[in-house]
């Protein structure tokens, strides 16, 4: 069964509060009477290593939004009032719940192993890891059903099975009001214009462009990016192509992003689309 990345990803988020959050909260309780303090003070008081200062900064941002902490000049802060430790913990727990629901912008790792990756499955399981999706096809389907207007697929490679998957995606998965925008390279064995000409009911919902620009000395500028976007709200950036190997067989790794990062990636896809032909 596939696991939704809107739940806590099995590989965890790139930002893991863990024990650092408890140490930060303890330090803030000890510092609340001071006129001001900085991240270094919190780190020293909580015995938090320097490489975890980014986690402290993220927690302080949460407390500022909760109106519990006041930002001062010079990257210093002041507690607005004495706060019960349990209450502070509740604020952090609430932020973590938002992260688990996918309402934060933090990237999440996405792992797909494929049906036949038995050796990697065993090795990953031994490390306590589980795939977020059984296959890349499951991942694309998950994004497709969340596309209200447009599912954008940026991939340099596709094959016969990839086209069959695309047809099923349009017929059975994609919401009726949505369309697919595909940016890829031209495959001479089965150009998209030929494939779509035989499927008029599909062609009206699939727009495509090829990214391949001639340069000097018989060289070409191409795109090797792999990106899947649900509108401009959710995106996967990773290693997967629209091929049989990627969809069903290979292990693939990438990042799932939402919010501001997804909107930037959408603008990038627009630039690729405008530059393609």
TrEMBL record:
One annotated GO biological process: phosphorus metabolic process
Domain of life: Bacteria
MF annotations from Gene Ontology: catalytic activity
InterPro entries reported in the protein's UniProt record: PLD-like_dom (IPR025202), PLipase_D/transphosphatidylase (IPR001736)
CDD domains xrefs: PLDc_SF
Domain PLD phosphodiesterase: 219-246
Name of the protein in question: PLD phosphodiesterase domain-containing protein
Source organism: Halomonas binhaiensis
